[in-house]
Amino acid sequence: MRKETHLVFAAVVGYATVELLSLFGVVHMPGYFERAVCIVLSMVGALFPDKIEKPKTFRHRGFFHSILFLACVVFLIYAFRDSVYFAAFGCGYASHLLTDYGTKRRLPLY
Ligand SMILES: [Zn+2]
How many structural domains comprise the chain? Predict the structure, then answer.
């Protein structure tokens, strides 16, 4: 999947993360600056999987692109849900894996 697609999807996910966490009272209502930081962190998180496992070949998806690692990311988001910044970064990372999962090649299990 293209980098631009990951970035757009991650920006939406980052904004939704902040709004949902504040809506459900997990974090206090963040200001505009905190929201902007969360969107940027989510976009950085979405770029991370391809920085770790560079897409030089068609079969670049290894452990850090796997469903097992996605489960680890979801667990870490839950464990550190008090930090809206960590949640935004983790959700951005997860958004990358979910959008890659939507491609024809899917993701490896581990
Ligand atoms: Zn990828």
Answer: 1
CA–centroid distance, residue 107 to ligand 1 (Å): 9
Q: CA-to-CA distance for 14 and 45, rounded, in angstroms? A: 10
Q: Is residue 110 situated within a structural domain?
A: no
Give mean pLDDT, residues 46-57. 86
Would residue 81 count as lying in a domain? yes
For ligand 1, the distance from its centroid to the CA atom of residue 57, given in whole angstroms, is 11
56: phi > 0 → left, psi -120 to 50 → alpha, else beta; which? alpha
Span from the CA of 81 to the centroid of ligand 1 (angstroms): 24
1 Cα to the center of ligand 1, angstroms: 7
The predicted model scores a pTM of 0.87
Domain assignment present for residue 106? The answer is no
Residue 107 belongs to a domain: no
